[in-house]
Design brief:
Shape: globular
Distance between the termini: 91 Å
Helix content: 25-40%
Length: 359
């Protein structure tokens, strides 16, 4: 049933409710009896013989598969489905693998008696892998394919981009994208730097993590070094109407914490104080899965923003703020350490002796 209505959750302009009649892209592929393989058709569904750079990027990634992963970290998938109006959610494991994601996404989104509708769907992939690309291609609806294809290629190449497309096939079906690369500076124990960093020759794409000059000694921390991690976040929203939408997020995250030798996660948690455990559980239980891991936000899964454009804007603003903080920390830390290093060099005894002898 199609009709116009102004929702209290949406903008003041009429936003149409549309019956979800779109097909999965793979169903269209089977109906048309395409002779090419499905993934090849997904990355380039036109029959043009002209080469396409985005298609080549995705093909190469699905063959090699190592340009979007943080060294030492496995692919993690988070899925959150919420029913419009009631706020009921589907039960999914906290972290999924590609097989579990395929199983969950092959269930119909609407009309199941024993499950809430998956009206508002969020999918977060940390360290994108070829297997996940295959799964997302299989379950993508036709109106999502262009955006998903564009998102995958931009995330693989680490691009900076923001894109807004409102009208799709004459209907108000917003497509919104944000792609941001950023550098994250971390101080890590010397004993962990080998596992943390990947040299360019170890990857088909120069990336991941690399050392900076040994400034940590200036802080009296001889056991540590500074490491810069190359990270990237991609967000893309595809809306059918303001009650039915999907947000994809791909993250090549920075390793947030490298523990000292002999310390494990359980010990670290106990050092934070038992009195805060309950509060921490409350925070993590309601945190929006697309929010940054640093906790410097107020995005809650239990306070759903139903309007897709408002939700995307809110989430994108949180990530932009994080990227700004990361760059400010990197620039100011390196600047302060360079200045300290220069001052220390000028005041060094051998430098003073050289100046005296010259005079």
């Amino acid at each position: 049933m199609n009709h116009n209505s102004t929702s209290k959750h949406s903008t003041s302009l009429p936003f149409p409710f549309l019956a979800c009649t779109d097909l999965n892209f793979i169903d269209t592929y089977r109906t048309l009896e395409i002779e090419r393989g499905f993934l090849d058709y997904f990355v380039q569904d036109s029959e043009s013989s002209d080469p396409c750079w985005d298609a080549e990027l995705i093909r190469k990634f699905c063959k090699l598969g190592d340009s979007c992963t943080t060294s030492g970290f496995q692919t993690e998938i988070l899925l959150h489905d919420r029913e419009y109006g009631t706020g009921k959610t589907r039960d999914h494991s906290e972290v999924l693998d590609s097989s579990q994601l395929r199983q969950a996404l092959h269930q119909p989104r609407f009309g199941l008696e024993h499950l809430p509708d998956a009206s508002c769907r969020q999918i977060l992939v940390k360290n994108l892998s070829p297997d996940v690309v295959h799964v997302l291609a299989e379950i993508a609806a036709c109106h999502q394919v262009d955006t998903l294809r564009d998102m995958i290629s931009k995330h693989i190449s680490g691009e900076t981009s923001i894109k807004v497309q409102r009208q799709v096939d004459g209907e108000d079906k917003p497509r919104l994208e944000l792609h941001l690369p950023y550098l994250a500076l971390r101080r890590v124990p010397q004993t962990k730097t080998t596992a943390t960093c990947t040299m360019p020759e170890q990857s088909s794409k120069p990336r991941t993590s690399f050392y900076v000059p040994d400034f940590a000694v200036l802080d009296g921390e001889q056991g540590h070094r500074y490491v810069i991690h190359e990270s990237h976040i991609s967000l893309a929203l595809c809306a059918w109407d303001h009650t039915k939408w999907t947000v994809y997020a791909f993250s090549k995250p920075c390793p947030e914490r490298v523990l000292p030798e002999g310390e494990n996660e359980d010990n670290a948690a106990s050092n934070d104080g038992e009195e805060n455990d309950d509060d921490d559980d409350d925070v993590f239980s309601t945190e929006d899965i697309l929010a940054p891991d640093n906790g410097a936000h107020n995005l809650s899964a239990d306070q759903t923003i139903w309007d897709p454009r408002k939700y995307f804007t809110r989430t994108a603003a949180t990530w932009v703020a994080l990227v700004l903080r990361e760059y400010m920390y990197l620039v100011q830390t390196l600047d302060a350490n360079v200045r300290a290093w220069v001052s220390q060099s000028i005041n060094a005894p051998e430098h003073a002796t050289k100046i005296t002898s010259e005079n």
